[in-house]
Amino acid sequence: MRGYHGILATLLIVLVLVVGCEGTGVAPTLPTLVPLSATPVPPSATPTVPAVSVATPTTVPTPMPTLTGSGGGVIACTVYYQVGDEIHVMNADGTGNRPFTQNRVDDEFPAWSPDGSQLAFCSRRGGNWDIYVAPADGGEATRLTQHRAVDLNPAWSPDGTQIAFMSERDGNQEIYVLDVREAVQNPARDTARRLTQTGRDVDDAFPTWAPDGQQIAFVSTRAGHGAIYVMNADGTDPRRLTQGDAEESTPAWSPDGQRIAFCVVQDGHWELALIDADGAELGSGNLQRLTNTSADEYDPTWSPDGTWIAFQSNVDSQWDIYALDVQEALRSEGALAESWRRVTADSANEIGPSWGP
Length: 357
Fold this sequence. Notes:
Number of domains: 1
Order of helices and strands: HEEEEEEEEEEHEEEEEEEEEEEEHEE
Largest sheet: 4 strands, antiparallel
Number of strands: 24
CATH architecture: 6 Propeller
Shape: globular
Strand content: 35-45%
CATH class: Mainly Beta
Oligomer: single chain
CATH topology: Neuraminidase
Helix content: under 10%
């Protein structure tokens, strides 16, 4: 099994198993959200999510405790439904949860533009997974990619003019970038440019921009397993940041540009951790963990002011969105899960948060 080959397939398996087993009384066994390398991760890294019944989408959950930090902003995430996965938006404390997309096709992987005026996402409404963008206050979505291959994981440049994403258009998973205005003005033409140049035995995915727009962090299997890399924004000078042997995924650059949050398999589970953006690991040569539970925590996204991180976790037997105070998590080395703030609390499975202004 080679690296991340089939990231899309694994993500779609997750979706099918969650939705297909809802209401059947059978608890689906979900694979991890990204494929693993040839060295298997312990079975406990494969979470089991009980079946849930979703007769009618719940759009307004029970109000959550207000975040005590100044993160503020709005969180978008993917919600699994029996027919068509949708994107929801909500206040950072979980109140005001409402659907952003409403149709019978799959809409997933939301990403807020830097100014919060637009939301990029992936959709199959055109018959294939492509990148779309829609106004934050509602309105018609505009298709940005037109390729027959799979396009996923949109990430905005800090100035809001470009979107980096993962595509399989050359047979393996590579990082591409498009100019948003150019893509809107040329709807029938593929305007994306390839940034990473690896062979078919290597996959690159999950791009995230540095706040100054000069670099992009991403996940690559160049080392034989998923690890965090960084490259210049034009694709030159790719270099590895992390040096461990564990699977790593979904990097997220902090708003101040100093740190990168990411996921790493520790003790058989996906956990959240931090590294310095220059590659020096925080602490005394060790990863600084943000979570330390017997569940899986995945896909971090920073609050606009960099004091909080939202993420998905199955700590309560299904996937929900939570938020943690970064400094509090560092002081406790991730041991204080009871201090998390739960953002979603309905019967659906919610994943893939994006925290916007």
